[in-house]
Amino acid sequence: MNTLTATIPAQTEYPEFAPARPVAKTEAPARWRLLPWGKILTGAAIAIVAVTGIGSYVYYAAGFESTDDAFLAGDVHPISPRINGTVAKVLVDDNAHVEAGQPLVEIDPADLNLAVQGSEADLAQARANADQVTAQIARAQADVETAAARITQNAAQLKLAELDFHRMERLVNTGAASTQSLDEARATFDAATAAQQSLIAARVSAEAGFAAAQTQRAVALAQVQKAEAALSTAKLQVDYTIIRAPSTGRIAKKTVEVGERLQPGQPMMAVVDDQVWVVANFKENQLAHLRPGEKVNVKVDALDGQVFSGVVDSFSPGTGAQFSLLPPDNATGNFTKIVQRVPVKIRFAYGSLAVSASRLSPGLSAVVKVSVR
Q1: Helical pair 110-174 and 179-239, crossing angle rounded to 10 deg
Q2: Which CATH architecture has domain 110-239?
Q3: Which of 93, 196, 259, 299: disulfide with 367, CB 3.0–4.6 Å?
Q4: Topology agreement, domain 69-107+250-371 and domain 110-239
Q5: Contact 341, 283 (CB under 8 A)
Q6: Alpha helices in the chain (DSSP H)
């Protein structure tokens, strides 16, 4: 008979477990605490600074209109002779600074001096003729006065002869005088009448001579004026032999040399005026806020970006395209809108140029910025 025997396991087979300690639950940290707040705050600060800077720049830039399509301009006076002649002296060098009225070129005046002497002789002759005619006028006037006096004198004799004749007629009618006495009285009266008519004719002739002398005097005076004008012209031609600077400035494009034969209007050199200004070509959509008198900053490229102050002077009455050699005609063909530019004249402020004025020349490039706020 089988007997079931129960076997108790040993403690070594089944180790005894001690009751587990209670474990405290730890909550998971919040997600927002895990973010890199240092970097976020730094980036936000940078963004705020950038936005503030951009906004400040936009606000600042909105108060200005600028263009780099600008250049310096000035008056350029071409120098040319007014007369023919040979150059005797050239008194200036290239790029030299000259004052208004300063001699630049001298033309040989020998031929013109001879013309002046001839004109002076013609004037002396014309004045002598005028003096001679003046003397003739005085003589003719004296003849008129003499004829008038003789007429007056003879008028008395004529009156007496007439009275004697009429008295003799009465005597003959009464038989108190002979017919011969009447004939003698009639002859004396007729002779006095004829003498009176002759004297009147002589006075008319003297008056005609006086009028002719006055006419000759007018002609003589005209000849004097003509000779004086010829002399003035000759002296003016001599004065033209010295060619002077029309304004203060600097010499440019000098091509004249000693011994050269010049013709009227032949270019010799140019004088660039010291006064310069800026011509800035603004786009048409930049003109809304531009006004004469607004302050301008001018930066000249040739002077390493040196900035000068100026003011808006005036606006061109037309765009640059309107004054070009071939103005556009938008009424033909297909139309493409092109933003036009308007030249704006800008003058430098008084005292702004200072020592740099001598280095500013027409044609230099510039950048202008106009304050429109």
Answers
A1: 170
A2: Orthogonal Bundle (1.10)
A3: 299
A4: no
A5: yes
A6: 37-61, 110-174, 179-239
Show pLDDT as tens, one digit a residue, over the chain (373 residues): 344 444 444 444 545 545 555 544 555 555 656 667 677 778 888 888 887 777 655 555 556 788 999 999 999 999 999 999 999 999 999 999 999 999 999 999 999 999 999 999 999 999 998 888 888 888 877 877 787 777 777 776 767 777 766 766 666 667 666 666 666 777 777 777 777 777 777 777 777 777 888 888 888 888 999 999 999 999 999 999 999 999 999 999 999 999 999 999 999 999 999 889 999 999 998 888 888 989 999 999 888 878 899 999 999 998 888 888 888 777 777 788 888 999 999 999 877 776 677 788 899 999 999 987 6
Beta carbons of 185 and 165 less than 8 angstroms apart: yes
Measure the CA–CA gap between 83 and 357, rounded to whole angstroms: 35
Report the distance separating Cα 229 and Cα 234, nearest Å: 9
* pTM score of the predicted model: 0.64
Domain parsing of the chain, residue ranges:
69-107+250-371, 110-239
Nearest to 144 by CA among 54, 92, 206: 206
Q: How many other CB atoms sit within 10 Å of the CB of residue 51?
A: 10
Q: Which of 201, 167, 198, 197 is nearest to 182 (CA)?
A: 167
Sheet of 242-244: strand order equals 242-244, 103-107, 85-90, 261-262
Architecture category of domain 69-107+250-371 in CATH? Beta Barrel (2.40)
